[in-house]
Every structure is written in C-alpha cells, then in structure tokens.
Amino acid sequence: MLERLSHAKLNLFLEVTGKRPDGFHELETLMVRVSLADMLRFQQRDDDQIVIVPDPATPQDSFPTGPENLIHKAAVAMRQYTGRAAGVTVSVTKRIPAEAGLAGGSSNAATTLIALNDLWNCQLSKGELHGLAASLGSDLNFFVEDCRAAICRGRGEQVSPVDLNQSCFAVAVRPPMGNSTPAVFAELAGEVGTRDATELIAELQSGCLASGSERLFNRLTEPARRLNSQMDILMSEVRNCCGRIVHMSGSGSTCFVLAATAREARVLLGRLRQLNPEFLEVLQF
What we know:
4-stranded antiparallel sheet, 7-stranded mixed sheet
C-alpha cells in the first residue's frame, strides 16, 4: 500500500489574459502549495476495478465515488496510456473542501497519477505525467511538478517553478455555498486584463511578503462576489474583523488574509471563529 498527501493550493495572483479557441481562458496565475492536505491510500487489487472509498466523515454529495471523480478519471487515463489492466482501491481522507478554489479534486487526480506510476511500476517520465495531467484539468500540472510555488500559464498546464525564501501564513475561510468555476468564468463576461505577477514574485523572493500586500490579485473575485452573496458578505466581515485586505483563491469560494507569523495567524484564527464560517484553517506555504 502507498500513502500520499494530496495538498491544496492558494492563488496569490490570477489574471485572465484572453479566451482560447478551445473555450478555456488564458491565465497567468501564481500558485503556492499549502499545508492543508487530503490523505490518499492506494492498494493494488487482484481484479481490474477502480474503487474509491471516502472516510465516513466525508459528505457523499460533495465527493462522488464513480467515474465522474477525478481520482477515477486519473486511474483510467493511466491505464489507457500504459495499456495496463490493473485495479486499485483508493481510500480518501478528505480535509480540502469542494468548490472552494483550493484544487482539492485536481490535487487528488495529480497525486493519483504519481502514486499509480509507482504502484503499477509504469516508469513514466515527468513529461509523460504532465501530458496526462493536462488532459484531465487545468490545475493538475502544478501538483505534478511538485514545487512550493509556480507561475502557471495557458490554462494552467505551463508550469514555471518559483523559489520561495520564506515561510508564509494565511488564514482561509469559506462560506457554506461553494462556487462553480464555469459559472464564475461565464460571469466574467469576456473581461480580460494585462496585469502580471512580476512585482509579487520579487516581493516573495525577497523574503518580505507583507501581510497587507496589495500585489495579490485575482481577476475572478468580483464576478464571484456577484454570484455568491454569502461569500460577498463573508469577505466584508473578514475585512472588518481583521482590518486587512481579503483575497480569494481560484474561483472561490475560499477567501484568505495573510499573516506575518504563525502566531499572528493563530490570533486572526481566533477572531474569525466568531463569524462561524463553514471552513476555517491556518495555511502555511
């Protein structure tokens, strides 16, 4: 049996730079891998079945176990590419919420590709794993690259790792209502921009990312706030409670504030508990 942590991500920067012929959007985004993670356990089977077993605490309506699950899709893609007829049972302990902009599903799928490459002794190169990842979704390649931070372009499949010279902290909150990524992009209504993450990367690499940094940016924030009134209200409440800029990850509905130290993050966590959000977590990256 193999055990693998499947980490979440935060988007510190996300600009939509255009629309692609395939219907996806061109992006430039700075993603960081955070401490929050699911645990996936892979056990080879004697038959050719792909079985996903969530822990009892995971709501079944938010974590389907059939062919629509990205873990299942990743296993099928691996079998089709390698010609193997192997089976696997994947036991999943979920901590990353769904529809949260934290890429829990994409991370699970990328982790599955990497783990099955070992479990089934497929001996695929990282380039081949990247190709499979790109066929499955927009965030998988970041996790296949296995780096702390990266600028991702295209629809997310072009990954350029970024060195970080400090440990950073954020406190993440999420309202009960999640966000649909396609709906948020539809609400964007063709709006594109030209901002880039150069100054933010320089700030990160200098080791002095400020908790009030205005260089963090997400083009999808305003469309998401229009669609999700719960998130809109929560962002305002967090701003009032913490007295600092509130950011959104991915297409939401997870929002976060930066903290300079682990101690400050714990203080902010205590303040935000009074808001009673659906999800509240200190993240390190």
